[in-house]
């Protein structure tokens, strides 16, 4: 929580009081982040202890509470439109649940998510609406992008809770700083982070942390069969996996 206060304040500390920020952080990050030593200098940082068992709880919960605060200050309402391959939808739905100034609409590929992920999105009600789409995650993203480009929808004040929203990414730097502080003894000691990756929002949080000065030597990124980005790094040619391949790790698309 102390680390989160310091980092988040670097970005919004001039427009929000320290007391309010402390309240937001305490409310958003009200779960543990266990770190387990596996062997020698290898550790696992568990990011699945939030309410929807996904690392996306970090970004979604912090974003929701910050947005709620500024909407109250400005006396405004918004509609969150987000696409999900599984984890984002549940995390966003839970994070924004019952926030009176925010409506949430989630689009998901109805045949490519788990039962648990579906229930996390579709059973809350209140200000949360989820639609199962006959298609792939990419189709959900296309619908969201089309909506954002439609000027006739400006009156409903659309916003996003996907990783295109920088407010989602900044909280995803926090566990890199936290993990580093737990496992290193020497100042400026460099570490390597291994990150399961789909859309690379998690990894982007780590890259931002490194840019902020965290001594990270390098990242190891693991993907499933939707391997267009590693292929791009190897060949220099971006070839989209289209349609995306449905894998056991369904949120990694």
Q: Could you give a quick summary of the protein structure above?
A:
The protein has 253 residues and is an alpha/beta fold. The protein is built from 10 helices and 8 strands. It has a domain at 56-165: Rossmann fold (3-Layer(aba) Sandwich), CATH 3.40.50.1100.
- Compute the CA-based radius of gyration: 18 Å
Oligomeric description of these chains: single chain
Largest sheet: 4 strands, parallel
CATH topology of the domain at 56-165, which one? Rossmann fold
Strand percentage: 15-25%
Q: Count every beta strand, where a strand is a DSSP E run of 2 or more residues.
A: 8
Low-confidence stretches: none
The helicity comes to: 40-55%
Gross morphology is: globular
Order of helices and strands: HHEEHEHEHEHEHHEHEH
Overall description:
The protein has helices at residues 2-12, 18-28, 56-74, 87-96, 115-122, 137-149, 166-169, 174-183, 201-211, 228-235; strands at residues 35-39, 42-45, 78-83, 102-109, 128-133, 158-159, 191-196, 216-222. The chain is α/β, with parallel strands linked by helices and 253 residues long. The model has no long low-confidence stretch (mean pLDDT 92). Its cofactor is pyridoxal 5'-phosphate. Keywords: Pyridoxal phosphate.
